[in-house]
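Final report, closing paragraph on structural work. Over the funding period we assembled a curated collection of sequence-structure pairs, and we close with a single example.
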Amino acid sequence: MSGRYVAVIGPGSDLPREQVDAAYEIGRQLAARGAVILTGGLGGIMQAAAAGAQAAAGTSIGLLPGRDRTLASPEHTLALPTGMGEMRNALLVRSADLVVAVGCSWGTLSEIALAIRTGVPLVHLYGWADYRSEGVAAESPEEAVRRVEEILHPDRG
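Its predicted structure, as stored:
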């Protein structure tokens, strides 16, 4: 998975511990396999995925909505302030080879919609029922990572 960019998206706050732990594990496992982790740069799922990448000595890039890079969660390797507000969601999705959604919020849902509309592969875990027919559903962090590998490297099956 080396050289691949995987966006890990999800809510920034008010999360069940199970979702935070899942994002951490997904970030850790993907980074250990050489993937660069992309996030929205803030807290919650984004911070957990970056912390997982950090634990695996990997790279995570946070694309921030504002102009102040100091607002990024400190676990990110790089913080890129876009000054684009929620429009940075499109930049995040289009920068990724694949999107993993952990949980859901309105902002996450916009990223999911962008991925679906632009053909960026989507794997989701703990999502809202209304969109679960799109992309590939996973039931655990390990399954999510396995699905990412299957999509990005179908020849290894």
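Helices lie at 17-32, 45-55, 88-94, 106-118, 141-152. The longest strand covers residues 5-9. We thank the funder for supporting this effort.
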